[in-house]
Structures are given as structure tokens and as C-alpha cells.
Amino acid sequence: MNQLTIAIRRLDPARTADVPLPKRMSEGAAGMDIYAAVDEPLMLSPGMTVAVPTGFAIAVPDGYEAQVRPRSGLALKKRIGLLNSPGTIDSDYRGEVRIILTNFSTEPFEIKRGDRIAQMVICPVIVADWVETDDLDSTERGEGGFGHTGV
Predict the structure, then answer these.
(1) Which of 77, 101, 113, 116 has the most CB atoms less than 10 A away?
(2) Alpha carbon distances (Å) from 105 to 16, 90, 110, 146
(3) pTM
(4) How far apart are CA 63 and CA 41, in angstroms?
(5) Residue-range definition of the domain harbouring residue 103
(6) C-alpha to C-alpha distance for 39 and 57, rounded to whole angstroms
């Protein structure tokens, strides 16, 4: 596995010292679990979306992004996910990482301090330069769009 050093800062160390920073939960894990830094339990009603604080900010190096993704266990067992999955933390953002959680279930879901609410994966970014043209090369698929191969 490749290694990359990324600066991370607790935004209020006195208030968030008990909330773990993102960490991998196994040696082969691509993602690092992210923990809720809520001061009081937060009830996420069915259909509700909220930006959950994490208490930290990061400095993603140029040429990379941090992708925020749902945790599979929360998605499968509780139907809790990220509305904008994956969310992107750009290399020039220095504010608090907040997790946009949505309750897709029919039951309320409580978010408590220190709960693992999402995962973060660091990914390389390819910067594209557009070249405007009048024609694109042809492919077998052509303009076949949504559902063109069946449902």
C-alpha cells in the first residue's frame, strides 16, 4: 500500500480530545473511519439530511482529494448514507470536514458522540484539459444512454 502524509488539525482540542481522528480499522482497509463530534446526541429523522461535525480539518496535498463515502454497515443495516456520495474534500479546502448524512430508512437514527459515521479514502486527481472539437471518435455503443443494454 502506498503511503502519503497529510496534516490534520483538531479544531477545538479541548472539546474534541475524546473523539478519535480518522483511522483505518484493518491493515488492508482502503478507507479510514470518521467519527461524529456532536456535543449532544443528534436524532436523524426518516428522510432527514444533516451535516455532522467531525472536529477536524485536513490539508490534502495538491494532486489528491479525500473522498467521503458511506460505511457499508450503516448503509445495509440502518439505511444511513451520504446524499452526495462520494463527497470530495479538495486540496485547497481548510475548513472543518463535515459529513452530509441522510436517513433513507423509515426509522429515526441517533448519532452519538464518537460514532463511526463515514469513511474517507485518499485518491489521486487527474486534471483534464478540454480540447474542443466538431467530431468525436465513434464507438460501438455510440449515443446509447441510460438503460440501453436493459434494466
Answers:
(1) 101
(2) 29, 30, 12, 27
(3) 0.88
(4) 37
(5) 7-124
(6) 17
